[in-house]
Every structure is written in C-alpha cells, then in structure tokens.
Amino acid sequence: MTTSSGRFVWFEYVTKDAPKAQGFFGELFGWSTKSVPMPDGAYVMIAAADGRTIGGYSDAPKGAGNTWIPYLRVESASEAAAQVKALGGTVVKPPGKVGDFATMALVADPHGAELALWQPAKPEDVPAPGVGHFAWTELSSKDPAASVAFYTQLGGFTSKAVEMSGMGAYHRLESDGQPRAGILAQRMPQAPHAWLPYVTVASADHTAEKAVKLGGQIIVPPTAIPGVGRFAILLDPQGGATGILQP
Questions:
Q1: What is the pTM of this model?
Q2: 65-91 pLDDT, tens digit each
Q3: Pick from 42, 140, 162, 185: most CB atoms within 10 A?
Q4: Contact 138, 148 (CB under 8 A)
C-alpha cells in the first residue's frame, strides 16, 4: 500500500557554492530567491519569474557534489520512510519537522539515488508547468527494472515502457492518468544513479547557448523527441546536471 500522492512537488539543489548556483540559474531561467526563516537558519527558496516558489537551495555535505533532490509528496513521512527500508532503500535523514510547513525525510533508493519524502502540514497546490517551472524528472538507473519496481511500490505509480530510438526502453511513471517521471538505463557507465529534473524553456536552443555563455557546458545538445518537444542536458559551472525542455 502506497503512502504517496504520486507526484514530485519540489526540487532542491544541493550545492557547494549557493551564491554561484543562484547567480547562474537566476540568469539562465529568470529565477529569483526568497529567504524563509527556519529553526536551524534561513532556507533559500527558488522563485520562478511568475513569483511561484518551485524549489530551494541547500548546502552540500563535505565531499559531496552538486545535485538535485526531488521531493515526493506523501501522506506519512514515517510510513513512507519505513517502506523505503522494507524495499531495500536507505533512510539518510529520519523524518523530522520542517518548521510549520511539513514533516520531511531524506532517503535513497537501493542504488543510491536520493529523494525527499514530503508530508505537508496542509494541502499544497502544485502549479501547472510554465516557462521557468519544473516540467519533468527522470532517473538514470543502473537497473531500470529494479528501479521501476521500487518506485511503483513507493510512489503508487503505474509504469508504461516506451521504446526510444537509440535509448532503448523509457519507463514512464504515471499517476491519476498523467505522466509524472521517467526511468531509463544509464547512458554512460560513469554516470551517477541520480534524479535529473527538467525546466520548461521557451527555446531549448537559445537556453543552451545562454548556458554556455554563462560558463556552463552542454552534455546532450538540443534534440527533438517526436510528440514531446525539444530537450537538452547541461552542466552548470559547478558540474551539476540540469535538463531543459521546450514542449
């Protein structure tokens, strides 16, 4: 039995240099920041150009790299964390209160990809993806079949496999009849087993060019996916990966 809503509702960038990351993404996507007081210090939220908060920045532990962590909304963080352990995952940070906002736990799936379990204190709206908002997230997995089994049980998703030219099977996770996330096999042996979010952009080509001018790199150039749109994957100046999607 799942304790999840089957939706990723927040994305947090864990970074070694928050000001540098904020500057890069602010220029690239038109994001601004909003500081919110917390018991253990201020938390910096990401605000899209329309003013909606869509994510946040946090400091990376010593020795860790820059990466995105998606937040999966759950009915009970404690029950979901227990389910993660039962399914072979790890509880990195046990459930705890996040001010008056929610109860949260940080966990990792059986192959090490981290995600947060988010139990909001009151109902929260998830805005429809617009330019500058997160539109998608996907997992580059060492074992796609095992990952699909883990997340369908944890998140209450159903899965549908779609053959992608040159990529093999792409497993689409769905809830309430809507696609929510994807799982595919790692393209390169050295690639991390990790979640990669995609930000909606007006033009994948122009955004990719801008990322390079701002000191980033393009690791997957703008590419068309029939029926979906045009996507690219970039590295920011600190080496963290982010996807962009032009619907």
A1: 0.93
A2: 889 999 999 999 999 999 999 999 999
A3: 140
A4: no
